[in-house]
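Pasting as-is:
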Amino acid sequence: MQRSGSANKKKIKKRRRESLKGHKCQKGKDRNEWPMAMFKEGGKNNNCPNNVADVFHISPSDNRGAGSSIKAALSYLSDGVQVKFKII
C-alpha cells in the first residue's frame, strides 16, 4: 500500500490539535495520526473519509521512535514537496 502527502511544516501544532480533537488519551499510550501533522493533508483539511484523520493509540516508544526517524529523514524537504510512503 502507498500513501502520499505534501510537506508543509507551517502550522504543525494546529493540524495536530485538529487531528487529535475528540480522541481521548489512554494511560501509557500515545495518539498517532495519519496523515501526519507535518503534511498539509493533516488536520481537519485532509483527504481522509469524513475529512478526519485516522488516529490510533500506540506505544510511546514506537510513536516517538518512528516520528523521530521520519523527521530526520524529511527535515531537508521544502514545503510543497510530495512524499510517498510505501507501507510494507
